[in-house]
Each structure stands twice: as C-alpha cells, then as structure tokens.
C-alpha cells in the first residue's frame, strides 16, 4: 500500500514477555518517528530516525525499550519484559524530509495490552 | 512547564461557529505541525508551517515565530470537524506534541 503500515494492529501479552512492533514507512521517506499514546493522553515521543544519522533515543522511557531501522526503511520497536504500564497505542510516522520540516504520515498504530 | 501547550483543552461549539485553537511553545522550531485525530484513532496531518499563514478549505493555520504561538481556525464549523486537534514542533527532528484540544461540534 501507499501509506505507513504497522503490525500487529493489536497485541495482547502477559507481563514479563517481550514484544516486537513493526513499522513499514512510505517508500523513500527518510525520517521515521515512534510515539506512544496512552488512553486519553497525548502523543509521547519515543525515538526518531533520520537518514543515516544516529537515532534520537531521548524519549525512550527505560532500557527495556529499543528500536532499530534496517536499511533506512522498516523499523522495529522492541519492548522487553513488558509491564502493565506499557499498555498503549504505539504509533509510527514517516516523513519525506528530516528535522520535522516535512509532512507527517501516521500509521494506524499497534494497540498493546499487557495483562 | 510543558514545551508545547494547547488551549482550550476541550471545546464545544454549535454548527457554523468560528473555532480557534491555540498553541504556545517554548522550544526553538524548524516547523510546527497541526494534526487531527478522529474518534476512531487515525491521525492525519493538517498543516506544517514555519511562518505566516496557510489555508486549506475551511481550515486556517497561523504562526507567530516571535511570540512562539500558533492558532488553528475552523470557519463554518460542522459536526464532522469533531475530533482532537494536536499541535507539535521541534528543531532537531524529535517533534514534541501538546496534549490536544478535543472539539465537539453540535448540529
């Protein structure tokens, strides 16, 4: 498809398990963002990938969270030893330009529920 | 103090009213973004601007760089405009967003 694709759309896991969330950005988009949105809350910045530069990981809430972007395209957000407070919708966005100067295209999100 | 603050937090209007949502920020910016999130959850980009004013249909966005303030206006509001409107900005790429303004337009 032409848009940003995220998978899985829904994930239910048990506390302590690891989860991987995937984001396929729009082809050719150099910038990729991960955000988290808890119920009724705003968008919480997690991590930003920009071209071949080192990612900005300043928003990752703990060392249980990590993300990578392979070949400047697909990105995976990994949460290790999940906790109930990790329950949220994880949103990915891509942009054709870096440094926030391009239009943002959001995926539909991955809803994570940690029991 | 949050880096990006929006007001009001909630807004109820009658169909046809002129709507204004405000966004103030304390960080340096390359650009400011306005997003719309419908109850179903999908987020779409409305505007990206770094100066002046942009217009798309009934929506108008303005920014005053000196005052670090942006406004989103909706003319002739309609119930289908009911959504959460979110502003965000940044200068190094890590875009920070406000908590959003929940707009409800009554017929």
Which features does this protein show?
heterodimer, A: 115 residues, mainly beta, 6-stranded mixed β-sheet, 4-stranded antiparallel β-sheet, 10 strands, globular, B: 107 residues, 5-stranded antiparallel β-sheet
Describe the structure.
The complex is a heterodimer of chains A (115) and B (107). Chain A is an all-beta fold and 115 residues long. Chain A contains no helices and ten strands. In chain A, strands 2, 4, 5, 8, 9 and 10 form a six-stranded mixed β-sheet that branches. Helices cover 0% and strands 59% of the residues of chain B. In chain B, the strands form two sheets. In chain B, strands 2, 4, 5, 9, 10 and 11 form a six-stranded mixed β-sheet that branches. In chain B, β9 and β10 form a beta hairpin. The termini of chain B are far apart. The interface between A and B is medium-sized, with 26 and 26 residues.
Give a quick precis of the structure.
Chain A has strands at 5-7, 10-13, 19-24, 31-37, 44-50, 65-69, 75-79, 88-95, 105-106, 110-114. Chain A has 115 residues and is mainly β.
Biggest interface, chains and residues, is: A-B, 26 and 26 residues
Q: What is the overall number of helices of chain A?
A: 0
Secondary-structure element series of chain B: EEEEEEEEEEE
Radius of gyration of chain A, in Å, reads 13 Å
Summarize the biggest pleated sheet of chain B: 6 strands, mixed
Q: What structural class is derived from the secondary structure elements of chain A? A: mainly beta
How much of the sequence lies in strands of chain B comes to over 45%
């Amino acid at each position: 498809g032409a848009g940003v694709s995220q998978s899985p759309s829904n994930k239910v896991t048990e506390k302590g398990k690891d989860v991987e969330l995937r984001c396929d950005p729009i082809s050719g988009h150099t910038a990729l963002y991960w955000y988290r949105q808890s119920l009724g809350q705003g968008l919480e910045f997690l991590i930003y990938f920009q071209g071949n530069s080192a990612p900005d990981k300043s928003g990752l809430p703990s060392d249980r969270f990590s993300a990578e972007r392979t070949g400047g395209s697909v990105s995976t957000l990994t949460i290790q030893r999940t906790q109930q407070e990790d329950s949220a919708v994880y949103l990915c966005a891509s942009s054709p330009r870096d440094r926030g100067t391009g239009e943002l295209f959001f995926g539909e999100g991955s809803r994570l529920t940690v029991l | 103090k949050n880096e990006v603050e929006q007001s009001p937090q909630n807004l109820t209007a009658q169909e046809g009213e002129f709507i204004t949502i405000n966004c103030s920020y304390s960080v340096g910016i390359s650009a400011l973004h306005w997003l719309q999130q419908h109850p179903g959850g999908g987020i779409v980009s409305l505007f990206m601007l770094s100066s002046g004013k942009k217009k798309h249909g009934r929506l108008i966005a303005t920014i005053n760089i000196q005052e670090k303030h942006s406004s989103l206006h909706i003319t002739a509001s309609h119930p289908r405009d009911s959504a959460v409107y979110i502003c965000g900005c940044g200068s190094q790429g890590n875009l920070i967003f406000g908590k959003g303004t929940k707009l409800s337009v009554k017929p």
